[in-house]
Amino acid sequence: MEDFPKRQIDVPLNGAIVKRHPQRLHRAVSSEEVEANLGAPDATATGFNGDQPLTWVGATHKLDAFFTSGRLYALSLENRASGHSVTVNEPMDLWGP
């Protein structure tokens, strides 16, 4: 992932809330890779065009991972207390089949 240093958000890390910069995806990982790291999602759906959003809900944050053709193209992290969220997208040079 790559930093965008001008903005910081609160994210959970080892049981604490720390400030981090929104980032962009360096590579598109598969839904299997994400589930292997995070465990089974709390919610899943399938879009009409085959897109697959997966959601993990914690005590303080909600993470949405968006997949197309089994490949991650965006993440959204929401602070459940404040309602603020940040979305991280894959770089445009990775777009396409």
Account of the protein in words:
With 97 residues, the protein is mainly beta. The protein has one domain (24-94): Beta-lactamase Inhibitory Protein, Chain:B, domain 1 (2-Layer Sandwich). Helix content is 8%, strand content 45%. It has one helix and nine strands. It has one helix at 31-38; strands at 2-3, 9-13, 16-20, 23-24, 43-44, 52-57, 61-68, 71-79, 85-89. Strands 5-6-7-8-9 form a five-stranded antiparallel β-sheet, with no helix packed on it. Strands 1-4 form a two-stranded antiparallel sheet. A two-stranded antiparallel sheet has the order 2-3. The radius of gyration is 14 Å and the shape is globular. The mean pLDDT is 78.
Q: What structural class should be given to the helix and strand makeup?
A: mainly beta
Number of strands: 9
- Strand order of the main beta sheet, please? 5-6-7-8-9
Largest sheet: 5 strands, antiparallel
Please trace the helix and strand order, writing H or E for each element. Answer: EEEEHEEEEE
Please give the CATH class: Alpha Beta
Low confidence ranges = none
Helix amount? under 10%
Calculate the terminal CA-CA distance, rounded to whole Å: 21 Å
Overall mean pLDDT stands at: 78
Count of individual domains? 1
In the CATH hierarchy, the third-tier topology is known as: Beta-lactamase Inhibitory Protein, Chain:B, domain 1
The 3D shape can be described as globular
Cα-atom radius of gyration: 14 Å
How does CATH name the architecture? 2-Layer Sandwich
How many distinct helices? Answer: 1
The proportion of strand residues reads over 45%
Oligomer: single chain
